[in-house]
Amino acid sequence: MQIPVYIISGFLGAGKTTCIRHLLAQTAGKARVMIIENDFGEVSFDAQVLQSAGVQVQELTSGCICCTLSGDFKQSLQAALRGRDVDLILIEPSGVGKLSDIITACQSPELADTLSLRQCVTVVDVQRCALYLRNFGEFYKDQISHSQVVFLSHVDENPQAVAAAEAAVRTYNPTCRIYAEPWEKLPLGDLVFSASAGIELSGSPVQEPPCDQDRAHDHAAPFVTCTLYAKEPRSAAAWQQVIRAGISLEGAALVRVKGILPTPSGYIQVQYNGGALTCADSMVPGRSLTCIGTSLQEKRWRALWEEV
C-alpha cells in the first residue's frame, strides 16, 4: 500500500502552517492525516500549533529533513502503515530546506513501495519575495521551481506586490499554478489533493545522496538558530520589549522569530519575519522563543532575556 504524500514548502515566515491549518479545516473528517513537521530549532512551534488541532504530528527538529527522512521519517511511516490509521501524509519542511532535496529523499528506492509523492506546493510571501530572491536566491528559487502549485500569502497586507511576486514566480517556474486569493476563499482540498501522476525531479532517475549527519549541509549553512526559554511568566508588554530590543540588535541578519510565551493570564504567540512584530493570545501553551538568522549575537540575546 502506498500512502499519498504532499509537500507544503515555503521560506521562513511565508505562512506554511497557516495554509495547512486552513487546508485541514476545509477537509476535516474526509481523510486521516499525518503531518511530518521539520522545524529549524530546538522546539517546533509549528508542531505545537498543529497538534492543538488534534492532528497526528511527527516532529523532526534541529536538523534538515533530507537527513531525518532516512531515519525518523521511515520509522514513522512504518508505524503508520502497521496501524493503518493514515490516509495521507503532509510534509512541512523547514523554511531553509531545498524542495529538490526533499523530493529526492521521498523518491528514494527504500520508500518507493510505501510512499507516493503526489504534489509539491510552495507558499510565497508577496511582501518578502523580492528581498528573499536577492538574499537567499539558492533556497528560494529551488522551492519555487520544483512546485506544481504556488499560493501567494500576505496579499491583503500588500496587494500592490502581487503582480511583481507572480512575475517572479513565473520567471523560475512558468508552468505552475498560482493562486493569489485568500485561502479561506479557495477550495484548498481540491487544489492540493488533486489527482496527479506523480512528481519528477529534472526528468531523470533520482539517486539518494550520501548523508553525513554530523556535517552541516550546504543548504543550511547560511542560517543559525537560537532558542530561549521562559523561566517564569511576564507581561505581554515585557516580552515584546525584550524581543524588539533583540530585533534592533540584529538588524537585517535576523530573518525569523517565533514562539509561545507565558503571561500572568495565559500565553501569547509571538512572530516576526522582517516586518512588524505580532503578538496575539494563544490557546496553546508554550515557554520558548526561537530566533533564526544569517548570524545571531546569542550571548547578547541571552543577556537581554535575563533582564526581562
TrEMBL record:
Superkingdom to which the source organism belongs: Bacteria
GO cellular component, one term: cytoplasm
InterPro entries: CobW/HypB/UreG_nucleotide-bd, P-loop_NTPase, Zinc-reg_GTPase_activator
Record-annotated CobW/HypB/UreG nucleotide-binding domain positions: 4-176
Record protein name field: CobW/P47K family protein
Organism of origin: Megasphaera lornae
